[in-house]
Every structure is written in C-alpha cells, then in structure tokens.
Design brief:
The chain is of the alpha/beta class and 182 residues long. It has one domain (3-19, 30-163): Nuclear Transport Factor 2, Chain: A (Roll), CATH 3.10.450. 30% of the residues lie in helices and 37% in strands. It has helices at residues 3-19, 44-62, 66-70, 84-97, and strands at 31-33, 39-40, 73-79, 82-83, 98-113, 120-133, 139-155, 158-163. Strands 1, 2, 3, 4, 5, 6, 7 and 8 form an 8-stranded mixed β-sheet that branches. Strand 5 and strand 6 (120-133) form a beta hairpin. Mean pLDDT is 82; it is low at 13-27 and 174-178.
C-alpha cells in the first residue's frame, strides 16, 4: 500500500471510530479531530487557531447562532460560485428545518501557501453533517465530504474560510459534489 493509501486508510478508520457509536444520537455533538497521522506543514499555534475556529463555528451551529457561524467565513468567500450570502441562506434554511445539528471534521493536512497577507492555508478535511428533522424527528444525513480542501485566509487575526482558489468550475468532475459548509 502506498503512503497516500495508508493515510486515507488511517483517516477512514479514525472517522469510523469517531462516528461509529451513533446509537445515542440525542447527545450528538461536533467532533473536530487532528489525527497523529496528519501532515502538518505549519506551526502548532496555527493548527490550534484553525481548530478553535472550527470549534467556535460548531458551537454556534449547535446554538443556531447564525451571525457567529457566518463569522467563520471570509467576506470574499467563493466556493464554486457560491458567495457568503448564499451560504448564509443555506444555514438559515438548515436552522429552520433541523435541530441537534452535529458534524465531524477529520483534519488530515495543513499546508500554508504564499506569505504575508497573501498567505492561504489549505486544510484537508473528511467528515459529515447530520441533524434531527423537525418534521420527522429522525436523524438524517445533510452533507458528507472526503478530503475536501478548505482554503482559509487570515483576517483580523482570525482564520476564516475563503472557499476555493481561482475561478469557479462551470461543471464539477464526475462523482464530485459541492461542499459549501465547513
């Protein structure tokens, strides 16, 4: 097995261990994990800052605090043509339709690209988002992603989700779905 194959295998095992015991979903909560096998090409303070940003956003999701959730996104957010206002609407709709929203983020790579105020942080993440439907009372999957690269930018001393680099693709590659949430 190649090095990448081992890393992906380890990530899948770790994600399964984190999300496997979902029998007690009434107490489901966010899980943000940086496995020991993660590739970390930045300093420890940067990793802690990014994890703290995700944790603040997750607590805001749990509280249905839309303004705090949106603070995780850069004003220049652009993900395959979706802007910050578009994502705000998605979160509003999720808060209207679901309760007990929870997610898992397995952060497996941190890479800094560029320098100074032009620096971007690429954070590779595998995870999922689920919630209890207000209509049916059942837990349902909302979103899932594998090795999605979150692009973050440092603004006002905080890392914020910037989206994707460059121009939005008109059509996503086969088998790929957009993941505008965090």
């Amino acid at each position: 097995m190649t090095g990448r194959g081992r890393k992906v295998g380890a990530a899948i095992i770790a994600l399964t261990m984190i999300t496997g015991p979902l029998a007690d979903l009434d107490k489901a909560g966010a899980k943000i994990v940086v496995p020991e096998s993660s590739v970390i090409e930045v300093d420890g303070a940067t990793v802690k800052s990014v994890v703290a940003m995700f944790e603040r956003a997750e607590q805001a999701v749990k509280a249905h605090d839309l303004d705090t959730v949106m603070a995780a996104y850069s004003p220049q957010y652009n993900y395959h043509g979706l802007k910050k206002d578009d994502v705000r609407k998605v979160w509003m709709d999720l808060f209207d339709e679901y309760q007990d929203i929870a997610s898992t983020h397995l952060l497996t790579k941190f890479t800094k690209v560029g320098s100074g105020n032009q620096a971007l942080l690429e954070v590779t993440c595998t995870g999922h988002l689920w919630a209890r439907s207000k209509t049916s009372g059942l837990f349902v999957p909302i979103d899932s992603w594998h090795e999605e690269v979150h692009y973050l930018v440092l603004e006002g001393g905080e890392w914020r989700i910037r989206g994707n680099l460059g121009e939005a693709q008109r059509v996503l590659p086969f088998g790929t779905s957009p993941h505008p949430l965090f």
